[in-house]
Amino acid sequence: MKPPPPLNYIRSFESSARHLSFTMAAKELGYTQAAVSTHVRALEHYIGRQLFIRYPRSLKLTEMGEAFLPTLRQALDQIDQATEAIVTSSRNRTVVVSCPMSLAENWLAGCMAAFRKKHPEIEIVLHGTIWEDLSEQIADITISTRRFDDRPPAGIPLWNDELVLLCAPTLLDGEDALKLPRDILKVDWIFVHGRQEYWQVVTSALGVDMEDYDKGLTTNASNIALELAAMGAGLVATQRSLAHAYLRRGLLVEPFPVRPPSPWNYYLTENQLSKGTIARTVREWILSRAQEDSA
Questions:
Q1: 102, β-bridge pairs
Q2: Cα(37)–Cα(94) distance, rounded to whole angstroms?
Q3: Phi and psi at residue 5, to the nearest 5°
Q4: Dist. CA 290–CA 280, nearest whole Å
Q5: Over the stretch 6-60, which tens digit does the pLDDT of each residue have?
Q6: How far is CA 226 from the centre of its chain?
Q7: Which three-class secondary structure string do you get for 207-265?
Q8: How far is CA 55 from the centre of its chain?
Q9: Phi-psi region of 207 (alpha: psi -120 to 50; beta: other; left: phi over 0)
Q10: Comparing C-alpha atoms, which of 42, 64, 61 is closest to residue 52?
């Protein structure tokens, strides 16, 4: 899996899309017009689709560019907000924790709520990310998701995650109920961009050939995939760590008891410039709760 494009490509595209001008984007970002144009072309090459229609004196977004832009703006806003949080909350009793949005919503929020009850004297800034940029450590504690062959050098795994196959309880009832592993070929599969290999691992564990499957839904977010599955839209293969809340509330069930090891895991990294004992207190709490929940 190739790494994400550099953040300056994304900023050049967003600014160009806002101004519909490479020249204006260059003035805003402090680049040359040629550099901005090169960044955008490199991004287009990366995704394999054209983002702008180029006229002699202006630009127009393509349909792909218009679809791509809102998610990137949200990601850039979150990065800027996180940076602002660091600048404005430099008090010694504040710890900033950065975590992918999916895990932040499905697990870390509850973990930090419990921490605050135990340690009300420590302020927590919880920053959910949808665009990972590890070149800048903006948080005291960073949780990132990485493949097993690309783990952070100093990263501590929260747990040894497993994959689970999930669906709404309604898919286990009626004439078309899922009874045998091969029955999954009869319903939609829900894919998450960048995590398609989850289906390869799960189908292999079930003894089902993926080549026999020809339909599905795709999204760019694990939480959307889980919501689609909870609404009965199909089956989702995901990390068990993200599924706790859905399983506990009965919104999703496991049609077949297979839990192969996940090729991706969550890792905790502490910023070397973090606030010493205070940050360590938060770190140890997160790691302790992770071990409890993985038992």
A1: none
A2: 41
A3: -65, 155
A4: 15
A5: 888 999 999 999 999 999 999 999 999 999 999 999 999 988 899 999 998 889 9
A6: 13
A7: CCCHHHCCCEEEECCHHHHHHHHHCCCCEEEEEHHHHHHHHHCCCCECCCCCCCECCEE
A8: 35
A9: left
A10: 61
